[in-house]
Design goal:
Layout lengths: L6 E11 L5 E8 L4 H13 L12 E10 L1
Length: about 70
């Protein structure tokens, strides 16, 4: 993964994105090694209930990295 070596913290989050843009089943699938950072990433993610209608082809199970660099 490009840039991963420079990351201070990196947490990978998995979630389900519905066609209507709702987010569900959010979980940290690869923690950063810092429990406070992982909890804050999850808490921020859970505050977003919907992103609006999802673009075609992006619905379903998704994963995203949250990275803090220096």
């Amino acid at each position: 993964m490009p840039g991963a070596v420079d990351a201070l913290y990196l947490a990978r989050v998995s979630f389900y994105l519905g066609a209507d843009g709702t987010l569900s089943d959010v979980r940290v699938v690869a923690g950063s090694g810092n429990a406070d950072f992982d909890r804050s990433v999850l808490a921020a993610f859970l505050r977003v209930r919907s992103i609006g209608a999802a673009p075609a082809g992006v619905c379903g199970r998704r994963e995203i990295n949250f990275v803090v660099k220096e």
